[in-house]
Amino acid sequence: MGRSTPFYACQSCGAQSRQFFGRCPGCGSWNSLVEQSNPAADGRRRRAAPSPPVDGAAPRARRSEPIQTVGERPLQRLATGFPELDRVLGGGLVPGSLVLVGGDPGIGKSTLLLQSARALAEACSVLYVSAEESAQQVKLRWRRLGPEEGAEGASDQAGLQLLAETDLELVLQELEALRPAVAIIDSIQALHDAELSSAPGSVSQVRDCAAALQRLAKRQDTALLLVGHVTKEGMLAGPKVLEHLVDAVLTFEGDRFASHRLLRAVKNRFGATHELGVFEMRDRGLAEVTNPSELFLGGEGPCAGTATIVACEGTRPLLVDLQALVSTTSYASPRRTATGIGINRLHQILAVLEKHLGLPLSRFDCYLAVAGGLDVEEPAADLGVAAAVVASYRDLTLPAGTVLVGELGLGGQIRSVGQLELRLQESARLGFTRAVVPRGSGLAPVAAALGLELLEAGGVAEALVAALGVDPAAD
Ligand code: TYD
Ligand code: MG
Questions:
Q1: Residue 109 Cα, ligand 2 centroid: separation in angstroms?
Q2: Interval between CA 341 and ligand 2 midpoint (Å)
Q3: Backbone angles phi and psi of 448, in degrees to 5
């Protein structure tokens, strides 16, 4: 490719092409191709710069060795001050690791990381690089997030250094000079490398800045936390490029109009994914929600069309209310909407109920919502959805204190689900007294010890009769 040949890079997946397309051939997103400078020139510059020698380390002997003789270092994880964040990270921040924290603008990424910086700085050195806000703005926020003025520890924070800078080169110099244990970059899209001609936030800039930071951080064992913005379509800009590079990807999500926020790990080299951390945005920053089940329970007590399920997010069981509204349709094809659950799942459950209970649901509109804005993906919610729909259709109220767990097969059978014991324990802890579960769980002794009435069912009709106390199919 000649020096003057332009090329186009997708801002979403990083795919490159010489030709302009309205739709990216790599990931299929529209209008994401942007003209870039010559990649060959960038590549040459990067390759020409030799990586600096490792200070104090043995000369690099690039040889393989038997796995048994490879030295092991005990992992000394750093506590972020938020046990919820530590759990999502797999037990704390690993020194030298690279973590990407993504989320919508205004969701609270800066707040989360500044609060963590405050706690981390108690035990180790922390550099907070603010590329979006001025030092004064960060200071103001830091004050607001800390203890009240005049209270103990209100101003002594020797371990926290602040740098308001967008130039990659200066950030790298500061990192090298300070050698902090933890560095926070807020945000990676706002940093820019003056040697690249593309605009800040473009894929080549994001990739280049992240790679340069990573090289330095790994060498000096600095844990790096990168803030990444999510685009309109809900993707981290240049996600594919960065996701390969980093050790963990956390997403911070939630409804901007509700106060709670959910933190998940979508990738984690040092722990399990699908752990969930729950936070609440208060006027003095984020606070952990230690009992999230209460958040997702409607609180208004049993009413027609409501059913409670126990969803399992990672290792954490969550009790969640589902609400259904079934009403006679006035459309040619009935309306079905689902919030917090896949629409195809709802269609499937309605079809099973129509076929196996003989309910004429195709003549009814059906709306389904998960309380609290949670997304429930696991099939263990199926039985709860079925119960909510049938209860609304028949205008019935489920007996107070009932939870339902089970996957619905297409043949109307109730399939077993994982982590049932954990789910029963959480139900009992929150005062539930009856649990409808798949047959053959073998958990009768556990349920008895927990004071739960265990109702096992093999088929959907049997399960709903047990749950509702009446036969929903009988006219
Ligand atoms: P912020 O951390 O700036 O979001 P991000 O970095 O993800 O863009 O958080 C912004 C929102 O949080 C802002 O709309 C105000 C709200 N907020 C509070 O409600 N309480 C607080 O103590 C703080 C610091 C922010
Ligand atoms: Mg921010």
A1: 6
A2: 30
A3: -60, -45
CB of residue 110 inside a 6 A radius of ligand 1: yes
Shared-domain flag, residues 35 and 184: no
Q: Which atom of ligand 1 is nearest to the CA of 285?
A: 22
Whether 11 and 123 share a structural domain: no
Nearest CA to ligand 1 atom 11: 106
Q: Using CA atoms, how far apart are residues 176 and 192, in angstroms rounded to an integer?
A: 18
Range of the domain at 29: 7-42
Indicate if 255 and 331 belong to the same structural domain: no
Rounded CA-CA distance 128/143 in Å is 15
Q: Based on the domain organization, do 123 and 211 belong to the same domain?
A: yes
- Give me ligand 1 centre to Cα 278, in Å: 16
CB 65 within 8 Å of CB 252: no
Ligand 1 pocket residue status of 144, Cβ below 6 Å: yes
Region of 358 please: left (phi>0), alpha (psi -120 to 50) or beta: left
pTM for this predicted structure? 0.74
Residues 286 and 307 in one domain: no
Q: Is residue 62 part of a domain?
A: no
CB of residue 259 inside a 6 A radius of ligand 1: no
232 and 317, same structural domain? no
323, 254: one domain: no
The ligand placed nearest to the CA atom of residue 133 is 2
For the chain, the domain total comes to 3
Q: In the chain, helix, strand, coil percent, each to 5?
A: 30, 25, 45
- In testing the pocket of ligand 1, which one of 111, 139, 186, 226 has its CB within 8 Å of the most ligand atoms? 111
Atom nearest to 227 CA in ligand 1: 6
- Looking at the CA of 109, which ligand is closest? 1
Q: What are phi and psi of 368, to 5 degrees?
A: -135, 140
Query: What confidence tens digit (pLDDT) does each residue in 25-77 have?
Result: 888 878 878 777 654 444 444 444 445 554 555 555 567 888 888 877 777 89
Q: Are residues 85 and 225 in the same domain?
A: yes
Residue 53, in any domain of the structure:
no
| Ligand 1 proximity of 103 Cβ (cutoff 6 Å) | yes
Question: Number of C-alpha atoms within 13 angstroms, CB side, residue 327?
Answer: 7
Whether ligand 1 lies within 6 angstroms of the CB of 143 is answered as no
Q: What is the mean pLDDT of each run of 10 residues along the chain (475 residues)?
A: 67 80 84 68 45 52 78 83 91 92 88 93 93 92 79 64 94 94 92 82 84 92 90 54 86 76 88 82 88 73 86 83 93 92 95 94 94 85 96 92 95 93 89 93 92 94 92 78
Does 258 map to a domain? yes
Decide: 372 in ligand 1 pocket, CB within 6 A.
Answer: no
Please state, in angstroms and rounded to a whole number, the distance separating the CA atoms of residues 253 and 262. 5
Residue nearest to atom 14 of ligand 1 (CA): 106
Q: Is residue 95 part of a domain?
A: yes
